[in-house]
Amino acid sequence: MTAKEDRLVSVIIPVTTRHSEVADLLREYKAGLENTGHSYEFVYVLDSGLPRVRESLEKLKAEGEPLKVVILAKWFGEGTALAAGFANSAGDIILTLPAFRQVQPDEIGRLLELLADETDMVVAQRYPRLDPTFNRIASKIFHALLRTTLDFPFGDLGCGVRAFKRKILDELQVYGDLAVFLPLLAHQQGFKVAECRTAQARDDAFRRVYSPKIYLQRLLDILTFIFLVRFTKKPLRFFGLVGTTIFAIGGIATLWLVFERLFLGVALADRPALFLASLMIVLGIQMLAVGLIGELIIFTHAKDIKEYNIAEIIE
Amino acid sequence: MDKIDLSVVVPLFNEEESVGHLHRAISEVMSGQERPYEIILVDDGSKDRTFEIAKGLAQEDPHLRVVRFRRNSGQTPAMVAGIEQARGEIIVTMDGDLQNDPTDIPRFIDKIEEGFDIVVGWRYNRQDKLVTRVLPSVIANWMISKVTGVPIKDNGCSLKAYRGSLIKSIPLYSEMHRFIPAMMSLAGVKISEIKVKHHARKFGMSKYGLSRIYRVLLDLLFIRMVVLWCERPIQSFTLLAGIPTIVGLGCLAYALVEALMIDGPASFIMFGLAVLYTALAVFLVALGLLGQLIYESGNVKTESFALLTAQSSVSTDASKVVQT
Predict the structure, then answer these.
(1) Got the DSSP string for B15-30?
(2) Is pTM, for the whole model, over 0.80?
(3) Contacts of residue B173 in chain A, CB cutoff 8 Å?
(4) Chosen CATH of B6-228 out of 3.40.50.10860, 1.10.3720.10, 3.40.50.300, 3.90.550.10
């Protein structure tokens, strides 16, 4: 970064179920950020009450720490907590940090250094990974999936350490759980996203065994994201493809059954296959109709949807 | 800001070799018009030096404006962005690959001045590969004109001229630029189609292939629906629901006849089918109502386009296209 221009960095820490001792971690983060030459504001977002965290944050505040604490009324998930943090911060640069030790705190300053003029976002990649083999393989599969389906070239979407410029938020509509996918969204929208290898914290390397529900949840997240990115503007492309396929299968099956009835003398009325084929025709038409309705919604709101992102205008 | 009469909008994607020629050719034609004009180049996230070259040109030419996208967004969004930036009363759009000839532009402008709302180019002598480009395009155009009722021979030609206030109010997204004439016909605009020159590609590669057909088909289906919706709102979906109703009733009749005439158990399958198809009919009517609701609450109203046309009170014949 050129010279040491003093910019306000908003450090946003969403606190969910997994969190370390607040006071210790804050001290470590502050130490890590000390020599970067920026000024900081710390914004904690508590996802639901979390009375003990709140207590210790209030204690820190009483001791004179300049903290901002946002408390969500109920459990909304990390994405929403982040979005609440974005809305309640003022800095040009936003740095999100997890509420537990995920990377070595003294490495965090490097992200801000990398966030130079040309780069819009820097995401940390925990490297080398200290996790047990099982978690590492699960993570590899997850990211391979991201790479092939969404062309996302980075290796650690699960790491909450990210630094980016506020203009990203101004240009992307970040709502709901999408904040978790912010690097993905930014990359897709043509922002320059860089990756920074940071040492993983020892605490982070324990064996995590999630329930199947969590894995399913992640898979659904990716599917939602693919749908949002690829088809939100053209719902008929998606529903039309699925609908016509089902319709075609049903139609061909019906024709075959009718052919058998007419020319081969096989009775038609008592065959469950006829029912199945008709069901597919009906389902196909319904899919197409739903796609048309989706398309109509986009069409009538086309003026509110921006499909492009202007980087600059030269006159 | 000075009043500008004419805007030329050109989307560019990886056209570093063409940009210079293009700018020179358009400037030559436009300066001959002796009216205030502007050229808007939209760089659709090119990976090559298109933007740097265009930027350099813009520093020397006060008529030139360059809009740069962060990422590649497609031809229609690029045109939309250009049209939104354009300040001219007449907006001309064209391709950035030098296949359209800028010397055709004055004829387009004349047509608009004559009182047409949109002038469409017809590449009557296309210089593209027959099987992969021209043939699909001929089929697509034939279908588009049949389905939309607007007999334009070449919907895919980018060289078009519009009345500025009108085109700015048309919902454009995705690959809708192909359907602008059809959409505008809803408002009863006057459309003119004129023959334009078409050159073989000198530089770069063609960016579109066969895969478009499927998308065009779906878009067409949708446009057809919008056209229907605008003309005969609920009736159209109810008519569509008539088909499954008939099928369902047929199945019911079959089942009843079988049950009453022939001794034996009634066909559950046929009864089931009757219920299934009737349910589909009800579903379609319900969706038709829902669609109507969405359409009414949305901000696209064909009536509002009509107010922007040149002679909205005179011209109500939507499908009238003048060929020259």
Answers:
(1) -TTHHHHHHHHHHHHH
(2) no
(3) 233, 298-299, 302, 305, 307
(4) 3.90.550.10
User: Which residues 10-49 of A are in CB contact (within 8 Å) with B?
Assistant: none
H or E element that contains B256: helix B233-261
The answer to whether residue A315 neighbours chain B at the CB level (below 8 Å) is yes
Looking at the structure, do residues A242 and A226 belong to the same domain, yes or no?
no
Q: Is B258 helix (H, G, I), strand (E, B) or coil?
A: helix
Number of domains comprising chain A: 2
Q: Cβ of A234 and B174 within 8 Å?
A: yes
DSSP string, A109-159: HHHHHH--TT-SEEEEEE-S--S-HHHHHHHHHHHHHHHHHH----S-TT-
Q: Which of residues 256-315 of B touch A (CB under 8 A)?
A: 258, 267, 269-270, 272-273, 276-277, 279-280, 283-284, 287, 290-291, 294-295, 297-300
Contact state of B298 with A301 under an 8 Å Cβ cutoff: yes
Tens of each residue's pLDDT in chain A, 315 residues: 444 467 889 999 999 888 888 888 888 888 888 877 788 899 999 988 788 888 888 898 888 888 899 988 888 888 888 888 998 998 889 999 998 888 888 888 888 888 877 888 999 988 888 888 888 888 888 888 888 877 888 888 888 899 999 888 877 777 666 777 888 888 888 888 999 888 888 877 776 677 788 778 777 877 877 777 777 777 888 888 889 999 999 999 989 888 888 888 777 667 788 888 989 999 999 998 888 888 888 887 776 767 677 778 877
Q: Which of A275, A299, A293, A282 is nearest to A243 (CA)?
A: A282
Shared domain for A56 and A156, answered yes or no, is yes
Same domain assignment for residues A62 and A153: yes
Q: Are the beta carbons of A279 and B276 separated by less than 8 Å? A: yes
